[in-house]
Amino acid sequence: MIRVAPGLRCLSLLGPRIWIRGYQTASPGLLPGDRKGNGLLNAVVKVFSTQSTPDFSMPWQNKPHEYTTGSGFISRTPVGLRILTNAHLVADTTFVQVRKHGNSERFEASVEALAHECDVAMLNVEDQKFWANSDPLVLADEIPQLQDNISVIGYPTGGENLSVTSGVVSRIEMQQYTHAATSLLAVQIDAAINSGNSGGPAVKDGWVYGIAFQNLAGADGIGFVIPTPVIHHFLDSVNSKSGYQRFCDLEVKCQDMENDHLREYYGMKAHDSGVLINKIAPLSSVSGLLKPGDVLISFDDVAIANDGTVDHPITGRINFQHLVSMKKVGEIAMLGAIRDGKKIKLTAAMAAPNYLVVWFIHFSTLRHASFFRQ
């Protein structure tokens, strides 16, 4: 069964169906690193998306069109200047337009690449007039530090003009992305992130450190940002010869080994740590290498603790699945395990989950597989 974390929601502005909380905005002005006074703001765009979703009760037709708005920003990617935004904003879209800050003209855009699992999409505009005098934002290579000041720029509900909210980084860990029910690295900030902020940049010192994408319903000051390592992973994959490759996953079910009697039963010494492998998907990249009953003690020579976490230079501890998700498809990983009381070393080529039926989760509801679209 697929479960979606309660309370988490995507943030495109979808008419009256989305419950909206109040928020406070800071006046747009000089941002850190913005020498021109509005250079960062000029790279932010408003996205107008017309979406037509499949109707599962009548799969031969789609539901009526819905009109949504959100945010995006111009950035230099491996394939040139493009607009980055959220996948949930342009999923099932039939028509997309974008409008630059300070302009009244809308330009038609096309979805050039889209990744549901990390909720990132890349748009292109054919009209070269749109790109004139564009000052693209630059993606940082690293994640922010705890307590760093972050500004979120976008077009949330409550008005038509650009809005800037500010806050600090309060947590960095693996979080469930509600659009596809996947768990990837996310940055939690206490800046106001509301409906319509989806796709807007999270900026620090003139650098983009993430993309706003969801908040926690019923809780004030809990918003989430897709960090740049996840965005870079998406962009690098889009630029590869084989096209977009999804995020890697071991596809195993693990159990913590914090119980001393359980550790003793599986032959672990006092200084050993790791997680117990309970189940392995038949099509997993480690099927035939790892076995149920193995204790996974390291990934790429990074020790795994009994609670499934590994050391991280910024967050302190983070789930070891983060290391797996940052691997590229086909990249080799070193696995350390305990089997029948003996330590073994294994090598495995990392792969994305190989689902027999393509699916994803969207707005906490099961959505169409590829065979619904002709």
UniProtKB/TrEMBL annotation:
GO process annotations (BP): proteolysis
InterPro entries to which the protein is assigned, alphabetical: PDZ_sf (IPR036034), Peptidase_S1_PA (IPR009003), Peptidase_S1C (IPR001940)
Annotated signal peptide: none
Molecular-function annotations in GO: serine-type endopeptidase activity
Family to which this protein belongs: Belongs to the peptidase S1C family.
PANTHER family associated with the record: PROTEASE DO-LIKE 10, MITOCHONDRIAL-RELATED, PTHR45980
Name of the protein described by the UniProt record: PDZ domain-containing protein
